[in-house]
Structures are given as structure tokens and as C-alpha cells.
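Aim 2, interim progress. The first record below pairs a target sequence with its C-alpha cells.
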Amino acid sequence: MTPHQPPPNIQQTYQNLKKQNPTKTLQLKHTKTNHYYIHQITSQYNKQTKKTTKQSTHLGTITQNGTYKPKKTTTKETKHEIYEYANATLAHTLLQDIETHLKQQNTPNYQDIIAYTIIQTLKPSPIRLLQTKWEKLYTSKTIQANLNDKHISTLLKDIGRNISHYYDLFHQLQTTNNLILYDLTTILTYSNHLKLAEKGYNHEHQYQNQIGVILAFDCQTHLPVGTDVFYGSMKDVTTITDFLERLPSVKRRNIGFVFDRGFVSFELLKKLREEAISYLVPLRKNSVVFDVLSLGWEDSFMYRERSVRWAKSSCEYGLLYVFEDPLLRGEEESVLLKRVVKGELSMDEFEVKRELAGVFALVSDLVRDPLEVYLLYKGREEVELAFDALKNSVGGDCVYLRDVESVRGFFFVCFLVLRVYFKILRRLREVGLSGRVLVEEVLFELSKIERVVEAKTGREYYGSIHKRSRGMLELFTKEIPMG
């Protein structure tokens, strides 16, 4: 059968279209009703079937007189736009102190930092999705931010390069003459080119590439006030030395540190005393300073409905505060007995170790009431909670970035997210809901409170508000203006 030959004028129009679109594969199709259509042919490879399939897309029509008529694209007019309102508004309000500082310091692209932080607070997202998610928030109408993926990549590097600028911010966030909870954790990284990444064992005893992330936490405000990243194998004591060196010297004497057992270094304590920096450090039970058996218990106090007894004495590093918790004593004795059953301890060794079961000691230059010292150390639970949020709620559980500056910039944004997280948690504690309502739950319920903007008239109003969402809204009436 002889192939159909289109009329010369139609053939000429078809050839002209091919010249005008050299990158497209065009095809002229003829129907039984004597109509001529232009289609674009594309190929797509199917990984499952391992075959290439062709797809045809209709572009337009060529009339009998040779006129090309493109396909009409019908766009449905949007009557209104719906934005998430309350969740992003709350996050933005709680970032006002940070935004004010960044603005006063003429920080480049500070609005982009705030916008990025808001999105990460609501739900951690890959960089490529930031702009799309931002456009769904009502806050995008009040903050002019550029969240293009290439721009954000450059922004993170700029943050990482200006580390001294952000250490000034850390100092402004700290309360005067107060103690800072300080700790280090390790974060998994999948980047093989990151200089900070070093092989090490994590808490699950897995030998993987990791980096070190520190958090400084204010004991008075119960908010994060500093962060930084270090080599994955760097010792805890070394990080505090570097952290101190980066702090403005005029501010160092106004703060003190509450450390974990990993920071016990008597050389560090001497250095802190020389610089008049206060410290509170738990001692290991095998420490030469820790001689509890020679002390006599002096008194007791109540902590969470259980009694704790204490003793105090002087040592060359300040004061030694010793505590015994009966509940902790029972737990530690149980662990020791299990080791006896497994053959890891003899009964004689058990009897020696049980003398210190439930007992722990703190050394400090502070002269405080023992109960106050005890509560300061128990405040370390805030840091543990912050690290848990960092890894499970803020999206900092692993890192794919390839350079040090970008990693430092990313964890600075995570630090800002944690400040919002703990401000919400603080409010939940104030109203007695911290044990029943999660921070994530608050943000989820507030995401249901939407702002509707009519396209033609520009009129704005709120959508219907669910009862549970209204309950969350009542917790933050000052932070979420409803107009």
C-alpha cells in the first residue's frame, strides 16, 4: 500500500516546524477524516522492563491551506489560594530574637536563613524542595526569601565561613553569670570527601564515618545557646578548649560549664580556674578525688518524690559534692548481679563495687547549696533531649554535605530549629502538658489552621478551625496573631 503523501503546502509547513524546533522530534500524522496533526515523539527507558518506550504528545494541527494552529492550553482560573498559617507564624515569632540580631549585624541573606529555619522546624526537607514548601506557607507573603537549591547551598557555605560572626550571636543569647550545659555527640555522614569525617564507633558500637557536634545549653533559659562541629575522633576535652578560644574573651568570665563524665580532665579544670571560668563536673567512680567512704553523710533532700542524701568536702579542685540515690542504687546493684551471673564479676568484686552503687560525685568551684548543685547536674537531661531532637526531629541524624563550611552552616540552622523546639516545649511545661503533648504534635495541629486568599479580590480569611487545633492555638495566643 502506497504511503499517504500530504499536499505540498502541508508538507512545507511541517518542514518549517522541524527547522524551528531542531531539538524536538516532530511527526506529522494523518487521520481517516483527512486531518493533519503535529506530534512530538519522546523516548523513556523503563528500568524494570529494560526497554525503551516511545510517547507521543499532541502539539497542534495543520489546516488544509497549510496554516499551523498550536494546541490551545486551557488554564483553570484559581478562585483562591490556601496557605498553612499558624504553624509557620508560630515558628517565625519564636525566631524574632534571632532575626533581630541578624538584621542588626547586617547579616547577608538573613531572611533566607529565617525562612529555611521555619521550614526545617515544621518538617525537615531536602534542599531541592525548600522553595516549593515555602510557597505553601502564609509567611512567604511577608518574608521575601530565596530558597532556590543553588542559593541555599551557597548560603550554607557563607554561614560556615563566618564562624566568628555567629559566636558573637551565641554570646548575646547567653544569660549573664550563668552556667552552660555542654556536651558532644557524633553524627553519621555518608560523604567520603568531608574532611571532618573520621572513622569511629557510635553509641551502637558501629564503626562508621562520623563528625562531632557540640551543643551549649543555658541553664537559666533552658534554650540552646551555641553549637559547632568538629572532627569525628576529636576528644571531648579538646572541643571545649576550641569552643572557649572562639568565644570573645570579654565574655568568658561571665559563664561557667556543666560537663559530662567524658570531660573529666584535671588539666582542663586548672585552666578554667586560671581564667575564672566556673565548672561543675561529674567524677568517675575510680577517680582519686572520689573518696566517698571517708565521708560522713550530712543531710538529705527530696527529688521527684524520693530522698537523696549528700555529703560535701574540699579538694584541690574546689568542692566535692557526693550524692546517693536509693533508686539508682537498686538499679546499679541489679546490673552488677547480672554480671556476676554471667561470670564477669566474682562475689568479692561485687561486694566492693556495691559500696558505691547509687553514689556519684561532682567537683566544682561553686559554693552552692547541695540541692542546687544536684539540680544543675540533672539539667543535663535537657542536652540529652536536645540531641535526641537533633537526630530524630530536626533532620540532623546524618549528613550528605561534602565540605566543612556547608556542614557548619547546616548545623547552625539545626541550632536555630532547636531554639524554636525548646521554646514550644517550655510553654508545654508551663501548662503541664509536656508529658502528654509532643512539640511535633503542636506544629501538626497548627498546620490545619489555614489562611485563604481570594485571587480576584485579595480578600483574606481563615478556614474552619478544628477543636483540637483551636486548643493548641490557645497555648500561643500572643505568638500567633489571628486578627
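The second target in this work package is listed in the same format:
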Amino acid sequence: MPYHRMTEAEARAFITSDPPHTGKLATVRADGRPHVAPVWYVVDEDGSIVFTTGEDTIKGKNLSRTEYAAMSIDDERPPFSFVVLEGLVEISEDIDDLRRWATAIGGRYMGADVAEAFGNRNAVPGELLVRLRPHKVTSAKDLAD
């Protein structure tokens, strides 16, 4: 079945679309087994993918140990499309940054009326701000056309 790769602009439009898609974050456990978890995210101006997670979660521990991840973002509706991002991650525990980005994430997925409450709830000790800096992007659109 033929498909079409997305241009860089198309891929960015896809991962920033409204309504937003949920990312599926892939990390590697200490014993080498894969781990995949859904995450809400926003895209920063520099193209990095920003999300939060608890430092004691499986993904939080994996990210802290390997400093590397992949994320798949897909549209499950025909004609089906996806973007997969791979790269290094940077982790911060800065509460002000956590609040800023968690508020943006909450607004994107739940609406402006609850964004601040979501940001405050997630800007706490033990929460990590993660920035995935993609160095490899794979994409396809209109897979069923």
C-alpha cells in the first residue's frame, strides 16, 4: 500500500494539531525490556516535545537512566497518519518551569478553564519536566489512500 512521507511542516502541523493526539512514549527498562506509556505533550518553539512525568514512574526512571526516548503520535482515523520522533531527553525539576509547561499541557488537552489548576497540581517535588529533542523523525500520511 503506497503512502506519503510528511514534509517537516506537515509533521509539525500534525503533532500540534487540534484536537491534540496523545503521544506514546517508548523507553527501555534497566533489564532491556521495552516500556510504552501514553503522554500528553506540547511542542516548544524549537521543536522539542515537552511533557511531565513522576520521577518514580517506570518512564521517569528509564528516562533518567538512559536520557533517550522515542515517541509515536498517530491518527487512528482513516486515512491514517503517524509521526515517530527519536532523540535525547533533558530533565528538569525546576518548579517554575514545571508549572509553566504543565499549565500549557493542561490547557491543550483539557481546556483553558482548568489549565492553571492542572499546572499547579503537577508542579510539585517528585515531578519531572522532560524535553525530547528529536534527531530522527519518521512520518507517513494517508496510509489507506
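Residues 95 and 124 are 6 Å apart (CA to CA). This observation will shape the mutagenesis plan for the next reporting period.
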